[in-house]
Inverse folding.
C-alpha cells in the first residue's frame, strides 16, 4: 500500500510537505504547483490514510461542525454571460436575496472551465469550506467534477441543470416552447420559423426549446423548413443578421408569417431587423420569445413571451439547498417551476 514516503519520492518533496497538503495544514506555505503534483500523485498511487490516521481524523471530526454559512457556486456558463443576461441575473438575484435573509454568502464563484485546472479544483475540494454547492446550468459533460465535489459535500442543488441523482430546480423548457408555438398556431399561423441558441454537441435540434417547437409543429402537421431555422449559439447579433439575410434571399418567395425565438434576447433583434426592412409586426410577421425579461414589455411593439418566475426560481434553489443541509432526508428530485403565456402586440393579431 502506498505511503506518504512514496508520494514524497514521486513528487520530489519532503514527507512533511506531503503531510501538510493532505491534511490541509496551512501553517507553512506550499506552492499551488506543488499541491497539484501531490494530489495527482495521491490519485495515481491510490494512497489512502492508514487506520490510525483515519481514527485520528474521526476523533477530530466527531464533534458536530459549526456551519460556515457559506455556499459554493459553479456555473457551466461563462460568468460574464450570466452577469449580462437579464434572465440569469434575475435568477441569481433571487438566490442572493434569500441568502442574505438567511445569513449566507457565496464562498466562491467558479465555472467548470476554470475547475479543469487541477490546482484550482484541489484547492476548492480541500481548502474551501462550504455548507452546500449550487450547480448553475447543464453540467452532464462535467459529471466527473460534480461527483468529486459531491464526495466532499453531498449538499448540491442544480439550477437549470441536467445532473442525475441530485435535487434540480428548473422549468419545463419543452412545454414552454410548446405553449409559445401553439399560441402562434391558434392565431392562424402555418409558416413558423425558429431562432435558437445551442452551444453543445448536437446543435439546436438537441435543445429543449427546439424540441418543443418541433413537437408543436409536427402535432399540427405543419412543415418545418430548414431555411426558416437558425442556431445563433445565443449570440444576439446573429439573430439580427440572420433575419436580414432571410428577408434578402426570400424576395418573391414565401416568408414565415411568425417567428418563435428561444429567448426574448434573440426575438428582439430579429423583430427590429424585420421592422427596419418594412415588415409590419404582427400583421406581416408575428414574434414571440421566452423568459419575459423586463425590456420585452417596452419594445415597439411590445413582445409576446413566456413568463418564467426567474427571481422565485433562484430563491427556491437556495431554500432547497438550505433544507437539504439541515435534513437527513435527501431524495433526488426535479422541481419544475410554472410558466405563463404573456400575449402582447407582437403576436396579438388573428390571421
Amino acid at each position: 500500500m502506498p505511503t506518504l514516503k512514496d508520494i514524497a519520492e514521486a513528487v520530489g518533496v519532503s514527507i512533511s510537505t506531503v503531510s501538510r497538503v493532505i491534511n490541509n495544514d496551512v501553517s507553512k506555505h506550499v506552492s499551488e504547483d506543488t499541491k497539484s503534483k501531490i494530489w495527482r500523485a495521491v490519485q495515481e498511487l491510490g494512497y489512502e490514510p492508514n487506520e490510525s490516521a483515519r481514527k485520528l481524523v474521526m476523533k477530530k471530526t466527531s464533534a458536530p461542525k459549526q456551519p460556515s454559512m457559506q455556499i459554493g457556486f459553479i456555473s457551466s456558463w461563462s460568468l460574464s454571460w450570466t452577469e449580462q443576461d437579464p434572465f440569469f441575473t434575475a435568477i441569481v438575484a433571487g438566490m442572493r436575496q434569500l441568502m442574505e435573509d438567511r445569513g449566507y454568502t457565496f464562498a466562491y464563484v467558479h465555472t467548470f472551465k476554470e475547475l479543469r485546472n487541477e490546482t484550482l479544483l484541489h484547492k476548492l475540494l480541500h481548502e474551501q469550506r462550504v455548507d452546500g454547492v449550487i450547480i448553475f446550468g447543464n453540467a452532464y459533460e462535467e459529471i466527473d467534477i460534480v461527483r468529486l465535489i459531491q464526495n466532499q459535500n453531498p449538499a448540491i442543488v442544480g439550477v437549470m441543470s441536467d445532473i442525475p441523482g441530485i435535487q434540480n430546480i428548473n422549468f419545463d423548457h419543452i412545454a414552454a416552447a410548446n405553449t409559445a408555438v401553439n399560441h402562434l398556431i391558434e392565431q392562424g399561423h402555418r409558416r413558423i420559423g425558429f431562432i435558437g441558441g445551442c452551444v453543445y454537441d448536437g446543435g439546436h435540434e438537441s435543445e429543449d426549446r427546439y424540441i418543443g417547437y418541433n413537437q408543436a409543429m409536427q402535432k399540427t402537421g405543419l412543415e418545418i423548413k430548414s431555411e426558416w431555422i437558425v442556431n445563433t449559439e445565443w449570440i444576439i447579433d446573429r439573430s439580427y443578421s440572420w433575419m436580414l439575410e432571410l428577408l434578402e434571399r426570400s424576395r418573391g418567395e414565401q416568408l414565415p408569417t411568425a417567428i418563435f425565438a428561444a429567448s426574448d434576447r434573440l426575438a428582439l433583434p430579429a423583430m427590429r431587423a424585420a421592422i427596419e426592412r418594412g415588415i409590419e409586426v404582427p400583421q406581416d410577421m408575428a414574434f414571440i420569445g421566452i423568459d419575459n425579461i423586463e425590456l420585452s414589455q417596452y419594445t415597439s411593439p411590445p413582445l409576446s413571451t413566456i413568463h418564467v418566475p426567474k427571481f422565485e426560481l433562484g430563491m427556491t434553489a437556495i431554500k432547497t439547498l438550505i433544507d437539504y443541509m439541515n435534513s437527513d432526508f435527501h431524495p433526488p428530485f426535479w422541481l419544475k417551476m410554472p410558466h405563463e403565456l404573456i400575449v402582447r402586440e407582437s403576436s396579438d393579431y388573428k390571421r
